[in-house]
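One-letter codes give the sequence; each number marks local geometry. A record appears below:


***
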Amino acid sequence: MFKVNDYIMYGTTGVCKVIEIKKEKFLGKEEREYYVLEPVYSKNTVIKIPVDNTTIRMREILSKEAIEELINIVPNADTTWIEDDRIRNEQFKSMLKSGDCEELITLIRTIYLGKKTKKSIGKKLYKGDDEIMQAAEKLLNEELAFILDIAPEEVPNYIKEQVGQ
């Protein structure tokens, strides 16, 4: 269970601060305990999610050490392109929903390399792939930015510098 003032990753929303834990009754249903979350990068937004939630993934944010280990796997992330658009889209959505940083890196790298390959033969990337890559980059960049105390748009260069060493 998370505590007030904990920072967590919440689904595809990203880094959130637990600002309160309280009991409430919604729509005449039984009283339940809720986390009240404030997304770090979406000001003026508050999310209430049941403490016993099982449908949307919530997890602790990574440590700085875990990020360093994660960045080291970037060059070796498995990138298997699935030719069938529907199957690929389902796989990519599943990876995105997992919220797992290693999965997000694999997803971003796979789509990036797929985009590069398609461009070299004069084709464009499937729109769904591009949207999923943007969502994955947002999640990964925001979490790493928060932990490293840099702006989210600085994360790609930070990773490039670390991988280049």
